[in-house]
Write a structure and sequence with these properties.
65% of the residues lie in helices and 4% in strands. By secondary structure, it is mainly alpha-helical. The protein has one domain: Multidrug-efflux Transporter Regulator, Chain: A, Domain 2.
Length: 103
């Protein structure tokens, strides 16, 4: 394959990846493969999380696992880690309100 064809193939594969990502974001329910693509996690990690009941999932039959995208997003964003600047800003805001109310 010559250089031009190689570049074209690479470009087409990138476009397909973007289409796959766009389709995933619109899905309401993921299967295990979708979740793997969405998060980048290994199948092993997904099965460990579900086995330990650490991640929200549904199992309507004895074999298939399904994940609601919105619940997964909420779960992923739990327990945020804030920057020191953000924490300092929040403390200062709280102190200003406290001082205004107690003056």
């Amino acid at each position: 394959m010559d250089k031009q064809n190689s570049s074209l193939v690479r470009l087409l594969l990138e476009k397909i990846d973007h289409l796959d990502e766009a389709a995933l974001v619109r899905k309401k329910v993921f299967n295990v493969t979708n979740l793997q693509m969405y998060t980048g996690w290994s199948l092993s990690k997904i099965y460990k999380l579900t086995s330990a009941r650490l991640i929200p999932f549904s199992k309507p039959t004895n074999g298939s696992l399904f994940f609601e995208r919105e619940k997964i997003e909420e779960w992923l964003l739990r327990n945020p880690s804030y920057t020191e600047d953000y924490i300092e800003e929040r403390v200062n805001t709280h102190l200003k309100k406290y001082n205004r109310n107690n003056s």
